[in-house]
Amino acid sequence: MEERETTYYVCNVCGYVSDGILPDECPICGAKKERFVKFG
Question: pTM for the complete prediction?
């Protein structure tokens, strides 16, 4: 099994997780991208 590096962005407001792409705003709660925390 091959492991790949993936970066996740988590919305600090509602907890939405984006896989590999930092959205301009959260599709769930509308928080701006500055509110996302990067993991990975």
Answer: 0.84
| Per-residue pLDDT tens over the stretch 2-24 | 777 899 999 999 999 999 999 99
**Sign of the torsion angle spanned by Cα atoms 39, 36, 34, 21:** positive
Whole-angstrom Cα distance, residue 16 to residue 26?
Answer: 7
Cα–Cα distance for residue pair 35/4, rounded to 1 Å: 26
Distance, CA of 8 to CA of 26 (rounded, Å): 13
3-state secondary structure of 4: coil
